[in-house]
Amino acid sequence: MSHPNQPKPVHRRLRTRLLMPAIIVAVCLVAFAGLRAWQLRRAQEQLQLSRALQQAVVSARSLDAVVAETRLLLVSLGELLDPTARPEETDAVLRRIFLAAPVPYANLWVADTAGHSLGAARYSAAGRAGFAIADRGYFRRAMKERKFAIGEVVASRTLPGRTRVLTFALPVIDSISQRITSVVGASIEVDSLDVVRTVRAMPAGTVLTISDSSGTIVYRTLDTDNWINRRFAISKGIVDDFVDGQGAGRGQSADGTYRLTGYRRMARAPWIVYIGIPVEYTLDVVRDGFIRDLVIGTFITLLILFLGYRSTLGVVTPIESLTADARAIAEGDAQRRSLVTSNDEIGDLARAFNTMADTVDQRSAALQASQEQLLHVQKMEALGSFAGGIAHDFNNYLAAIIAYAELARQSLDEQHPARTDVDDVLSAAARASELTRQILVFSRRQIVERSPVDLNAVVDGIERMLVRLVGDERALEIEYADAPVTVIADRGQLEQVVVNLIANARDAMPDGGIITLRVACLQAAAGDPRVPGATGGVFGHLVVEDHGVGIPPDTLLQIFDPFFSTKARGQGTGMGLAIAYSIIEQSGGVLSATSTVGAGTSVSLVLPLADDAQIEATRRVEPSPAAYTARHGRILLVEDNAAVRTSAERILRNAGYTVVSAADGPSALQQLALSPEQFDLLLTDVVMPGMSGSALARAVQERHPGSRLLYMSGYADDASVLDAVASSGVRCIAKPFTMRTLLEATDEAITQPPLA
Predict the structure, then answer these.
(1) What is the pairing mode between strands 681-685 and 513-524?
(2) 669 near 715, Cβ under 8 Å?
(3) Which of 27, 273, 508, 635 has the maximal Cβ count within 10 Å?
(4) Span 379-390, mean pLDDT?
């Protein structure tokens, strides 16, 4: 007798459910492949347009250089050669100059006014008698216009075959009679020009076209014989506007091929240089990516369909049996056991089902362990929040201490006995500020602010923390660079990266050993995979080496992937190195690793060095107290801590600003509504009760569009607040700040154009 729940409907439902994910995956993969193909095509077109324009500019400049150098050579020849000398002597002089010329000329010559040879570096098989140029356009123009002339690209009468040459001619004019005594000239084999060789090395179908101002083709690298002296045209409205002298666009060339074309007008010749890259080239790149994605998607879809079908056949009956067993136990039959004995997941489920009653205690213990682990995670999160909160309060206290101490110091004479005490207070406050900043590194709630920072100073600032981190069973050796290694990065993020690398090195050495941390400048050759870019140069370099267990090659490829971890469950999240990799990549650097199993691992951090201008921008001379009274403007100061608010208000007022202060966002908006005059700057804390600084800034912007803004904070307890500050592009000064930092930031912000 069959069970009341018939298997066939269940069978059909499971088949449908197992096939639906495969269909959804297939549709998504095809859509994804199409989207990637569209994005790749757009990116490739923009890249090739830029490449075409760049090559057109380079080609035009290169041809201009050839024209200029040739003209200078012909002027020199005109002054050097004597048209009355014996032709053999002139030949010898021209051959010496021909062999020594920096430009690979095809020939150098001098002719009389009738176009007959007076001398040449090279002759055709017919010799001097075969030299006749009276019919050449460049010769006629030189004689007629009495100035330097550039000829068309023509077949050479001297070189064998159909070799195309570009010829230049210059009439030699007697200074007394002003009559033309001779014509000197030079020819260059077109295929020897750098621009032609470069274009021939570009994607197949790329064409170099040179036209004159009327649009007549002077030279073309493809099908040269059929195109010289024809009109050049590209689809109207695309790239035929020569107003700016250069441009790029997509259009159909005169030969019917769609190309991404860049053009540039030459400065020393009445020519326009075009570089056209076939659109088909970009389509090939896109097509390859699309086919690859489509093949992978098809394979995955078929695999899912096959597995779904096989699963449907083997799942329905065992599940139906397990369902009946579960109902029996639910109805009180504690002795009921499943008879499914397959060696797959369903068989495992049946065996687990059969031992369920016997493992209640074990499962309860496992549940308790999971709850303890969850509690531990919550405690760590609470500890991070607690540490951040402590740092926040300390930063407020330190901000007030530093501000009042600097105000006191400003009022004391240089020789006042209390000035040394005030300096000691400021020094102690600076050390306390460093401690709170290190706390924020662990809580990951620091405000990101990239600036020039010395890697030596970063490591030195957290050396004690690192020594405690590695523990007593391991030794930490630090090798500092002999000179500052200054890079552009956020100091807090760099410290977080270094702490992560040292922690990983510690975990790789459970039996103890030596961990080496080295700071240096790295001289890298072009193409070095350890450094950003492909040009090489000098970079900031930080290396962490351990002599631990090492990492297998297949695992080494994944260590920077998010959530990848080789540690036991509960001992790591797999995010430490992924976060470090992301931080260094966003700072323009490279984080890489090498490892040998059983010998240890070396992790390399490379960042570009800061240039002199960036370093100099941070070396500002502190203005004298008298300079602090020369400022003007109205500032709305919003800070929930009374001591910080009062001290900052005094500093700004002493500097000459008009300051209206508020303790929170709603109070600030009320002050804004009651004020008859416009405020020049909103200076607000980021973290405040009720309304954050970023929310207040948006509210002020809605009421007074174009308001200027400056943030101050050293802590943010919400990722959305951090994102809002980082994405706004507005400077944020970290607490505790000095008088100079506050005034410099205020001066800079209040003189900036209003926000868009």
Answers:
(1) unpaired
(2) no
(3) 273
(4) 59
